[in-house]
Design goal:
Elements lengths: L9 E5 L1 H4 L7 H15 L5 E5 L2 H15 L4 H22 L23 E4 L8 H11 L4 E6 L4 E2 L11 E2 L1 E3 H8 L15 H8 L2 E6 L3 H8 L7 E4 L10 H4 L14 H21 L4 E5 L5 H8 L3 E6 L2 H6 L8 E3 L12 E7 L7 H13 L1 E9 L23 H8 L6 E3 L12 E7 L2
Parallel strand pairs: 1-2, 1-4, 2-3, 4-8, 7-9, 10-11, 10-13, 11-12, 13-14
Antiparallel strand pairs: 5-6, 8-9, 14-16, 15-16
């Protein structure tokens, strides 16, 4: 018996060259895929697997050309589409006891009453690859990430099969991806992502992770939200430059109520900053405090009004420049992973909605740093999937690159139990409103 799922499905585009490389079925790959998917299904996850055509499709297309010479693109595409359907039937056979009985070949018809943890898709129409079909599924089933499995580690600045000095690109925007893929589709086209799918993925604001399908430990790390090898394709470049004036005006996702150049936005965010500062003053009464990821400095401002020697650090020059002039001397430009303060410098170190904006490999270091510079208390408020209330005040924020459930973060903080313990006795708001972790530093 299958159960209802809270989360959207994990969409994985499985390159045909992984299933049938060089004309022969890769049994070892399929065994490993079967094992991993079943383990993750047992944890409550569900998947949509879209089978590509790969080398077998290209081989059929090549033979067609060799036999009759001139062959139109539509016929070539149909050869590729049928190759994807053959591969999809193989996947459907492997997962028959946990997969929906219908293989998706018409993407205008959604699965009705889908209860199984796995669904299989194949090619649809001439004119694009199964990457485009994966984007359609992401749109229709509310998924925001597609994992694209290929036989290389990700997107490179040049062909790694031809050039030994080819460099793996860890992050790229859709605009930059279009420059690599171009805009035209041809049957058998081989690129990191379908040029027809690319503009639609950009329009929908999707994130695509291109990675090597043979590394199953790496694939599991991607699904579990840990550090991984691969290329992340996003609508915007997510770095310090992302947090420009347009971001604070709400033009790149984030707050529905902009934090700058808005009368009501200023009132709302000042009230929120006042409330947070007041709670910290009344419950902890710190003599000194540091906000990591202080943004425009709302909380720092009110803590200082309450007599606390409060400071802030943020990696966005724009945020500091938008803060009130009298507050800027107390705000410093810097990284959460390398705080420019000595050990035990502050009674309280805290962050609000920062950690979920950090790359996975930076999260551990940022927590470690917050503990190091604190004397007593560390607080991290994190936007998690339980926080349904936030949907009233937030648009989709593309900077939330580590957007997970609370249990992920609980597991993360337990890694530091020798340095700081989670204080579960603190009174906190319900999880549908906010997720907050209180840590007590150990001497």
């Amino acid at each position: 018996m299958f159960f209802k799922f809270k989360e959207p499905p994990i969409i994985i585009s499985v390159g045909g060259s992984l299933i049938v490389p060089n004309g022969g079925v890769d049994t070892a790959f399929l065994i490993n895929l079967n094992k991993l998917i079943r383990e993750l299904v047992a944890q409550g996850k569900r998947f949509m697997l879209i089978a590509g055509g790969g080398q077998i499709a290209r081989r059929y297309q090549q033979v067609g050309r060799e036999v009759i010479g001139d062959i139109n693109n539509e016929d070539l595409d149909w050869l590729g589409i049928h190759a994807t359907r053959f591969n999809a039937h193989l996947l459907r056979t492997i997962f028959q006891d946990i997969a929906n009985p219908r293989i998706i070949t018409n993407y205008e018809k959604k699965l009705t009453d889908w209860k199984e943890p796995v669904a299989i898709g194949a090619g649809w129409k001439p004119g694009w690859s199964t990457d485009y079909d994966a984007v359609i599924l992401a749109r229709d089933y509310n998924a925001q990430v597609i994992i694209n499995l290929s036989n290389i580690d990700g997107v490179y600045d040049k062909d790694p099969k031809k050039f030994k000095d080819a460099r793996l690109i860890k992050k790229i925007t859709w605009e930059e991806m279009i420059k690599i893929t171009g805009s035209k589709w041809s049957p058998g086209f081989n690129a990191p992502f379908d040029p027809v799918a690319t503009p639609l993925a950009q329009k929908l604001g999707l994130t695509v992770i291109v990675t090597n399908g043979h590394d199953f430990d790496n694939l599991e790390r991607i699904i579990e939200g840990e550090s991984f090898t691969g290329t992340v394709v996003t609508p915007f470049r997510i770095d310090a430059g992302f947090y420009d004036r347009d971001y604070y005006l709400g033009k790149k996702g984030g707050h529905k109520i902009p934090r700058t150049e808005s009368f009501f936005g200023n009132i709302f965010h000042n009230i929120k900053g006042f409330y947070r500062a007041l709670i910290y003053k009344l419950t902890l009464n710190p003599r000194s405090a540091l906000e990591v990821g202080s943004s425009l400095g709302y909380v720092v401002r009110y803590l200082r009004l309450f007599g606390v020697d409060a400071r802030g650090i943020d990696y966005s020059k724009t945020a500091i420049s938008l803060a009130p002039k009298h507050l800027r001397p107390y705000l410093k430009l810097g990284e959460a992973t390398d705080l420019p303060y000595k050990d035990n410098s502050f009674d309280l170190v805290f962050s609000h909605d920062l950690l979920q904006r950090l790359d996975h490999e930076k999260i551990v270091k940022a927590i470690e740093e917050s503990i190091r510079v604190s004397r007593k208390t560390i607080i991290h408020k994190i936007y998690t999937k339980e926080n349904l209330w936030y949907k009233l005040f937030y648009n989709r924020d593309f900077s939330n690159v580590a957007f997970f459930y609370k249990k992920y973060w609980n597991k993360m903080f337990l890694k530091f139990k020798d340095k700081a313990s989670i204080d579960k006795n603190r009174l906190m708001l319900p999880s549908f409103i906010e997720t907050k972790f209180f840590l007590k530093k150990k001497s």
